[in-house]
Amino acid sequence: MKAIALFSGGLDSTLAMKLIIDQGIEVIACNINTGFGSTKDRLGHMKNMCEQVGAEFRSVDIRDEYIQEVLFSPKYGYGKNFNPCIDCHGKMFEVAKRKMEEWGASFLISGEVLGQRPMSQNRESLDKVLNLSNCDGLLLRPMSAQSLEPTIAELEGWVDREKLENIVGRNRDRQMELAESFGLKDYEAPGGGCLLTDEHFSRKIRDFIAHDTFEVADIPTLKYGRQLRLPDGAKLIIGRDADDNAILKTIENRKYIHIDTDLFGPHSLISANASDSDKMLAAKLILAYCKQNFEGPQVLDFGEEKITAVCDLSRKDATKYFI
Ligand code: SF4
User: Nearest C-alpha to atom 3 of ligand 1 is from which residue?
Assistant: First the structure.
């Protein structure tokens, strides 16, 4: 008997998997990549949690499908920011259900806890997720199972419902107790969750779609660097530190050109269709962020084009263009 777990790397989904593995069922931990996960690398953490409970880790990339079908047209709307949580959960379960036959699984599990998050994990929301994904009966939520209707896995006797949990609400005491009894270590996930719940990131998406059509290749351009919108509409991205610069250098996106300088300074990107005036402004702003002292006009490479500018603007001047 095999089950697929929707796995985020968090404690609840890890405990849910352990409760099922302890009943002799093989669990595949399925992490769904929407593209909007934290900029921190959580892969090592997720694999570590899976190893500790004996689940097999697999990742499924749904970035394109997510942008086409969920992000901009959620049936159940958004949370506080650009987070379409109910539709997002529904999509994740739909994807996991699609994988069932291919991976030989008989049911699905998730770490959701009834009443833990007022918006997305109350009974009504959990039902909406089931409706959206057509997973009714297939999805077992081991952490709150005893407070929910029995699912196929329980009715068929594959899983003993009595050995599952009855956790409801925000109190985390029982989760801590279970983590302790299972001997789980390092279960605090590294900082930063889904970027769609972040106010600033949501503002950047709103700004982007007001000017352009959003595609998978655009995701990294929103995640890194200072983001500026210039007067003629060009987007300018200026690396904040060495990590940003290294990532920005690897971005290949036909909507942007890379800007290089011989000075010790940030790596930057600007819209490929930027006006001459926006390009000149960008050159001055980039020079303002260079860390090296220099005098007189400087030459910057805008892709094939060279632009010579003097630095007569400051970093404070740049802030008025920040998104
Ligand atoms: S927080 Fe992000 S990943 Fe999680 S359900 Fe909401 S939109 Fe989806």
Answer: 194
Q: Are strands 26-33 and 2-6 parallel, antiparallel or unpaired?
A: parallel
CA nearest ligand 1 atom 2, residue: 194
> What is 2-182's CATH number?
3.40.50.620
Contacts of 134 (CB under 8 A, 6+ apart): 94, 97
| Residue 213: exposure state from Cβ atoms within 10 A (0-12, 13-18, ≥19) | exposed
pLDDT tens for 46-83 read 999 999 999 999 999 999 999 999 999 999 999 999 99
For residue 173, how far is its CA from the centre of ligand 1 (angstroms)?
Answer: 24
Going from the Cα of 300 to the center of ligand 1, the distance in angstroms, rounded, reads: 40
Q: Tell me: the pLDDT tens digits for 105-161?
A: 999 999 999 988 766 667 788 788 888 888 879 999 999 999 999 999 999 999 999
